């Protein structure tokens, strides 16, 4: 079985993320980059399947500038067998439509039985790419899973909904997305870090995938810098602080 895990190189959530006000795009130079944590959980799910079935192949795929290769190296050090990096200057600022079309073309080129991804990234938070991929590939989507079991050419799992949970299943191939209810990712060990340098990484361009058009249809109308956060209110306990605190909490609907 071949599992392709989509990994995204995103700004470190521990740092302040910024937009380039001139272009409306993410300022990737303003902060350090990391593998999106929800994608690491998807990778962990794939690696656990590989741990129990040595015939399983796990491929990490990312789309992004040169720096996104760091995400692939992290995935390879965790245990992925190989990587696919889609990098092309023409993809800079690609919207969800073009991103999904490009990833779908890359997935067709790579081949797969299962596509695993996080339910939404921590930078864009659109959460629509997996569904758009499923549409491009004409495959079933099992999204927002809190558990999954893949065996014998089929996948079953539990989907978290607003009003409860659903038990769902389908045959393979399929597109799956995981939520934060999936186990945390393992840490790369020393052997994994060393062997990651020797694992193959395929580089693909938009032209090689034949996805030069259509261009992104999403247009950023304007960008505005977030205003400075106002100073908080300090309560001095002169015998009335408890009442003032209670009034503050009630007024701001915090209790």
UniProtKB/TrEMBL annotation:
Needed co-factor(s): FAD
Source superkingdom: Bacteria
Domain spans labelled Electron transfer flavoprotein alpha/beta-subunit N-terminal: 23-213
Keyword Transport: yes
Cited Gene3D superfamilies: HUPs
Keywords annotated in UniProt: Electron transport, Transport
Keyword Transport: yes
Lineage per the UniProt record: Bacteria, Bacillati, Actinomycetota, Actinomycetes, Micrococcales
UniProt family annotation: Belongs to the ETF beta-subunit/FixA family.
UniProt cross-references to Pfam families, sorted A to Z: ETF (PF01012)
Designated name of the protein: Electron transfer flavoprotein subunit beta
InterPro entries, A to Z: ETF_a/b_N, ETF_b, ETF_beta_N, Rossmann-like_a/b/a_fold
Physiological role: The electron transfer flavoprotein serves as a specific electron acceptor for other dehydrogenases. It transfers the electrons to the main respiratory chain via ETF-ubiquinone oxidoreductase (ETF dehydrogenase).
Subunit and interaction comment: Heterodimer of an alpha and a beta subunit.
């Amino acid at each position: 079985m071949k599992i392709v895990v989509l990994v995204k190189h995103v700004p470190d959530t521990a740092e302040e993320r910024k937009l380039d006000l001139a272009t409306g795009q993410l300022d990737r130079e303003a902060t350090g980059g990391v593998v999106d944590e929800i994608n690491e959980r998807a990778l962990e799910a794939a690696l656990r399947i590989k741990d129990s079935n040595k015939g399983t192949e796990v491929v990490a795929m990312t789309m992004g500038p040169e720096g996104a290769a760091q995400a692939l190296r992290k995935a390879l050090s965790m245990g992925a067998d190989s990587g696919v990096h889609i990098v092309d200057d023409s993809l800079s600022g690609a919207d969800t439509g073009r991103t999904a079309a490009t990833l779908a073309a890359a997935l067709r080129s790579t081949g797969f039985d299962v596509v695993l991804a996080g339910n939404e990234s921590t930078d864009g938070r659109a959460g629509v790419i997996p569904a758009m991929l499923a549409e491009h590939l004409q495959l079933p989507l099992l999204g927002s899973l809190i558990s999954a079991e893949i065996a014998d050419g089929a996948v079953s799992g539990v989907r978290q909904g607003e009003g409860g949970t659903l038990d769902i299943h389908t045959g393979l191939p399929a597109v799956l997305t995981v939520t934060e209810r999936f186990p945390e990712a393992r840490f790369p060990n020393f052997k994994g870090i060393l062997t990651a340098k020797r694992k193959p990484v395929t580089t693909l361009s938009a032209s090689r995938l034949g996805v030069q058009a259509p261009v992104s249809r999403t247009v950023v109308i304007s960008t505005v810098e977030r205003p400075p956060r106002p100073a908080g209110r300090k309560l001095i306990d002169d015998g009335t602080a408890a009442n003032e605190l209670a009034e503050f909490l009630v007024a701001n609907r915090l209790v």
